[in-house]
Fold this sequence. Notes:
Elements: H1 3-17, H2 21-34, H3 38-49, H4 53-56, H5 62-82, H6 87-103, H7 107-128, H8 133-202, H9 208-236, E1 244-247, H10 248-256, E2 265-270, E3 276-279, H11 281-297, E4 303-311, E5 315-322, H12 350-360, E6 364-369, E7 375-382, E8 386-387, E9 394-395
Amino acid sequence: MDSKALYARYQELQAYVGWTDADAARVSASAALIEPHLPALVDDFYAEITRHPGARKVITGGKAQIDRLKGTLTIWVRELMHGPYDVEHVAKRWRIGWRHVEIGLDQVYTNVALSRLRSGIVRAIMKHFQGDPTDLAETIESLHKLIDLDLAIIEDAYQSEYLNRQAQVERLAAVGHMAGGVAHELRQPLNVIRSSVYYLQHARKPTPQKQNEHLDRIDRQVKLADGVITAMADFAKLPTPQTRPVNVAQCLAETLETIRVPDAIELNVDCPADAMMQADAGQIRIVLGNLIRNARDAMREGGRLTVDVSTSEQHVEITVSDTGGGIPPEHLPRIMEPMFTTKARGIGLGLTISRAIITKHGGHIRVHSEPNEGASFTVVIPAALTADPSTGVHSS
């Protein structure tokens, strides 16, 4: 995190707990009370760590490492008590959390270790404090605020870095999973092409009919492979939608022109002629095409495919429903994941791409399904912006 942004965050947290210059002065005034006890507090801190395997596992350098860490902790406590609580102070605390992720130390051990150290510091102050009990209580309260602020920054850094690393791991896993899926999808058409090429190269006096048959096979498999690559390219780089008012009925009609619906499937479309959405028409046709083809493919033996459009002032809802076998409950949470598919063939990116497109439009997709009762997907997208001719102001 940028040091200035981090310090601004720390200042926000200071305001949240009510930290003031008076708190800083009280803590600084009590620093001399714990100085004689500091070596014992630091020794206790690391002695306790060595008694817990989950914390001890990160101490890989033996006594020399512990001695270095004791020196670092001593400096940390002195800086804690004296300040200044500036940009560099906060950056050092942030680096502690980052380092704990790097060495694999569970944050819970940082929390309990600081709790133990806090108790030792409080005991030392209470034992040697000379003054009004009210002043002592205020000093202890100020110390708690300060340690809580340090812990908040350390934990914030820990969580940010941990989530960042987890995201990297998940991205690598997704790439690996996707690469495996692509390899699987491309291998079959390539094998068919290879066998046809082998035949054409080695067959003795093949008939024109046989030659054309193998050439057609090659052509079909090239188209299949091209479809896989196109899907990957669409997924990898979806351009920012260029939105404008789009007539929903026209967009649906253009989409349906490209999709073959068998005679065994009854197609019903209910869309107000004046329904308008704020959208990139080309990208929405991709979404509608994916949903309609999925609905069609879910009804191999025939059924009813319904496209229903409803509108409000803010949104347009397009629901594509089928009367197929439905989606198994265990698959529902995963159906929009990359490479997840229940089809015998298919790369499993259609719904992933569709969700990405709708999200970039500021909308979302809902899905509902019951076993043996079909499925319905609802696209929710912003209604078109229209201008008031008297003012030129746009509204939805």
